[in-house]
Structures are given as C-alpha cells and as structure tokens.
Amino acid sequence: MPLDIETRFLCLADLEPAAREVLPHAVYEFIAGGAGDEITKRDNEAAFDRIRLRPRVLRDVTRLDTGITLFGQSLPHPIILAPIAYQRLVHPEGEVAAARGAGVAEAVFTLGTTATAAIEDCVAVSQSPVWFLLYWQSDRGFNGELVSRMAALGAKAISVTVDLPTPGDRHRQFRAGFKIPDSLATPYFKDRNTGVLKVGTAQRRAMPTWADIAWLRSLTTLPLILKGILDPDDAEQAIRTGADAIVVSNHGSRNLDTLPATIDALPAISERVAGRIPIILDGGVRRGTDVLKAIALGASAVMIGRPYVYALATDGADGVAYCVNLLRRDFEAAMALTGRARIDEIERSAIW
Ligand SMILES: Cc1cc2nc3c(=O)[nH]c(=O)nc-3n(C[C@H](O)[C@H](O)[C@H](O)COP(=O)(O)O)c2cc1C
Ligand SMILES: O=C(O)C(=O)c1ccccc1
C-alpha cells in the first residue's frame, strides 16, 4: 500500500474506487456487479445501515477479547474471507497472495473450486486455517474426489455452494464483455466453460441436491458448511443432513435479485437453528458495526467478499491484511463503544 494508506483507506468502502482505477473495466464489473437491478446488492448494505445499536456504559472494556471457537478451533476474531473466483484476474499471485494476507491478519481464507491456485500453495503461506469451497460440477465423482482429498492437502473445513442452480443475470459483466482468459488455469474447475456465465438461457448447471450433500458428508470428517441458505426450513434440513455450519448468504446478491438482505434473513434462521450449529453470515459486511450487528442477531462469524478482492487488486497480500485489520479494529471499537468486552456479550440486547 502506498504511504498515504492511513488517510486514503479509512474504511472498506474506500477500497473500491482504488481498485476500479487499477483494474480492467470488465474485471471490475465482474467483481462489483450483482444480479438484475442490483436491488438486493444495495439492500445487503442498506439493511445494516437501518439497524441501530444500544450501548451500555461504565463497563470495563480495556481488555477486549474478539476470540471465537468454530468446530473446536480457536480463532482470534470472527472475520473470514469468502470464496471469490479467479483471483489471478486481479493480482499475479491471486489466491496465494490473498491467503498470505489473510494469514498476516489471522483470518480464515476460503479457497473456491473456481480458484486460480492450488490449496497446498495457500496453506503453505498462511498460519491461519484455509477452507475449501466445493462448487458442484457435472462430473459427480470428481466432486467426491475433491472433498475426499482436501483434508490431506491441509483444508480445515469444506464448504459447499448451494445457491446457484442456474447462472444469475449479471448484466454488468455482460455489457462489459467480461471473459475468462484461456490462459488462466483453474486446477479444480473443469466446468468453467459449460455455461455458468451465460445468462438469459434458462440453462441449468450441474447442481447438488440434499442427497448429494448427504453423500459428501459421508466422504469427509472435516467440518461441512453449506453456503447460501436463506430459509429456516433449509437451515433445519442442513442440520438434519449433517452440516456442521451454514452460511446465510445471497451470494453477494449475484444470483437472484430481490432476495432479502442477509442481515434481514438472519433472525428467523438463528431462531430456528437455536445454537445447534454455528451460523456464518455474508453480504454487505463493510463496517465493524456490521460485524457486531450480525453477531447480535445470531451469527458466530462473518465473511467478507468484494472488499478484500479490491484490496488484493490495490496492494496484493499487504492490501488484504490491511483490509481485514481495518475491519477488525473497527469491530473492536464497536465492541468497546457498545460496552461489550467479549463476543458472548454481544446478544440481541445490543440492537436498539
Ligand atoms: C467476483 C466474485 C466471485 C465469487 N465467486 C464465488 C464462488 O466461486 N463461489 C461461491 O460460493 N461464492 C462466490 N462469490 C460469493 C462470495 O463468496 C460471497 O458470498 C459474497 O461476495 C459476499 O458478499 P460481499 O461481496 O458483499 O462481501 C463470489 C463473489 C464475487 C464478488
Ligand atoms: O461469480 C460468482 O459469484 C461465482 O460464483 C462464479 C462461479 C463460477 C465461475 C465464476 C464465478
């Protein structure tokens, strides 16, 4: 990051214009875009903005503890990097640089099936856990192979994308003529040219069903996380199928427009889940207060997507570490200013 970093990047929102300056237009549109009219994309952030906080005073917040435990693993803070496709589009080292930055900031990094780097190379550069995200492909056996192989390669959890049976209508990347360069290798993604990026065709991609999730469950002892749940009944079925966690997500609003903001969907889901498994939330998390609101409404952790990719584009691994640390410090400030010294003190009463 340039020397003026502390004045230039005061919050995660400041990263987007910086990335826009350095990225090819079509790549920027691919990352920034949401589905349809981007109503849900705006709402993911606006819904956080509508929530007001309730501070408690005169509590000792000199020593803050942001630590959480997920699947028996201690994590120093609840900020996780979401899986984002094709990171070598924005930086020559792609996911490896992102994982290195995540490690510096002590954050879990999620490597997607759509990654342009191998998981061993990400594990090698980070002390923090690396998770693998399975994006289901048409070769059923290959999906199973990936899941079976991941523990030996160093993955600490397996997440599965469950919210993308057909490509979302992403006008911006289409208008900009976004294309994946053939030269960009994707070691786990064989289906990349089979239509996932085509819109308006009503084409269905290969897609897992609950039976497939049960099969994946039988293939690994790693924690299994279902990413892309918005309905309490699906959360219930996830638990019944053996999921160890869910991600309440609308895929950064890239799939179906006019879905609810994730923070609005969270309360009913956390009520139903009732603490049986951890809930992770993503979509529009930009401020420390957003992290606090998500935890107050039932999340154990949050994921961030676009902001860290903008940081990666702007300044590689250092940028990613800077981005996470910025959010982490902002979250600590939000905890102190609401009188919450530990994560388990952040409950519903923190919401006005
Ligand atoms: C450019 C881009 C690529 C993504 N690729 C994937 C993917 O391959 N698999 C997946 O499950 N989610 C993918 N996502 C969704 C993110 O994991 C995450 O749910 C979302 O970005 C969170 O919202 P936020 O960007 O508002 O923080 C992608 C998101 C973006 C912006
Ligand atoms: O862009 C995305 O959100 C995404 O999930 C994806 C999936 C496959 C290929 C590229 C991106």
Automatic annotation (TrEMBL):
Its cofactor is FMN. The keyword Flavoprotein applies. Pfam families: FMN_dh (PF01070). Gene3D superfamilies: Aldolase class I (3.20.20.70). Keywords: Flavoprotein, FMN, Oxidoreductase. GO terms for molecular function: FMN binding; oxidoreductase activity, acting on CH-OH group of donors. The active site is at H251. The keyword Cell membrane does not apply. FMN binds at P83, I84, A85, T161, K227, S249, D282, G283, G284, V285, R286, G305, R306. Residues 4-352 form the FMN hydroxy acid dehydrogenase domain. Glyoxylate binds at Y135, R170, H251, R254. Belongs to the FMN-dependent alpha-hydroxy acid dehydrogenase family. This is Alpha-hydroxyacid dehydrogenase, FMN-dependent L-lactate dehydrogenase.
